[in-house]
Amino acid sequence: MKLYRIITCLFVLLIVSCKDASKTENKSRVDSLPYYADANFTPNWFESDDERLIDFHRIPAFSLVDQSGDVITEKTFDDKIYIADFFFTTCPGICPKMTANMKVLQDEFIKDDDVLLLSHSVTPKTDSIPVLKRYAENKGIVATKWHLVTGDRKQIYDLGRKSYFAEEDLGEFKTDDDFLHTENFVLIDQNRHIRGIYNGLNKTAVQQLIADIETLKKKDRARL
Questions:
Q1: Strand, helix or coil at 113?
Q2: 186 has a pLDDT exceeding 60
Q3: In CATH, which of 3.30.450.20, 3.40.30.10, 4.10.640.10, 1.10.287.110 is domain 32-223?
């Protein structure tokens, strides 16, 4: 009986230790997020008031049009956290799964005005405003939360490759005629800095993205 009690105690202690270790690991993973400035996605660790952030890479100015016919610019996302991706409405492959996972994000933050979603069409000539509107209606997309944008093809492709670094073909030369196709979601903070990149096809990655958004929100509240 004495041996049984000892074994039971050791088993309980082991469970508690594992739980504590797990809590520590999870907490440290989302305690703060790095900043990214290039396609290598080398993490840079700064405090939010670091002067080096003044000239650090940001998503530049842009002007596109969404499914409601509204002009969407970088100003639309002032002081907002947003998730960006690239898709096209007739995509039979990865896009439907990406859209489903973006909708997971929409539903998670549907009541949070500080979090938005931005999907860029990589076939803007065929993805007109009416086409995007029908797509949005079929997918349950809320226009005030999630902007599907079309516009100048070069601007969209430059944003994808030179600003969001969304493609994974690192080091491979691409011309303006090469098609842009990527499953990545890119997390942008309130100051248009890149704070993370995630596989938009992977449910675990999407859950980590949700956790990282909560981290950015906590950091923002801490500054107030």
A1: coil
A2: yes
A3: 3.40.30.10
